[in-house]
Amino acid sequence: MRVVPNPLSKAFVPARLLLAEDDSELRALLASSLREDGFEVVEVADGNALVDRLADAMAADGSLDGYDLVVSDIRMPGFSALEVMIGMRRMLFRTPVVLITAFGDPKTHERAKRLGASLVIDKPFDVDELRSAVTKLVGQHWRRE
């Protein structure tokens, strides 16, 4: 089980991820794999649900209260992840974001990076690649209680 040390106590708490993917089979696979690694995963199926979760979690300091990382498909019904990233940037969110896409041209990658994405992974991808990236990114951030 992967956990993130809590700087305010000696206890360890599981890192919490927000996963947005409109393909239900891929979302289930990713969520299951990340849970096997010890992460707590909250799943949403489209861009509108992603925006709702982010709005509910917005903290005054620019973090997502309760989420250590966001993993999102770029193209989904409702808002695209790039549209969501524009809103996150305006709100000065600092929570790391990993984007996945089946339409990973260089322009999309550049735009995602400019908007603050920590990583963009093209579909199809090796699930272990995503798991490794998530572990690395979450390891750089403390979990807030």
| CATH class annotation | Alpha Beta
**How many H/I helical runs?**
5
CATH fold group: Rossmann fold
Gap between N and C termini: 18 Å
Secondary-structure-based class equals alpha/beta
Second rung of CATH, namely the architecture:
3-Layer(aba) Sandwich
What is the string of helix and strand elements? Answer: EEEHEHEHEHEH
Strand adjacency order, main sheet: 4-3-5-6-7
What is the quaternary state of this protein? single chain
Radius of gyration: 14 Å
Shape: globular
Say how many strands there are: 7
So, the CATH homologous superfamily? Response regulator
Counting structural domains, the number is 1
Strand content: 15-25%
Percent helix: 25-40%
What descriptive keywords fit this protein?
alpha/beta; two-stranded antiparallel ribbon; 5 helices; 145 residues; five-stranded parallel beta sheet; Rossmann fold
Protein described:
With 145 residues, the chain is of the alpha/beta class. The chain has one domain (14-136): Rossmann fold. It contains 5 helices and 7 strands. The strands form 2 sheets. The chain has a 5-stranded parallel sheet with strand order 4-3-5-6-7, with helices on both faces. Strands 1-2 form a two-stranded antiparallel ribbon. Helix 1 (24-36) links the parallel strand 3 (16-20) and strand 4 (40-44). The model has no long low-confidence stretch (mean pLDDT 85).
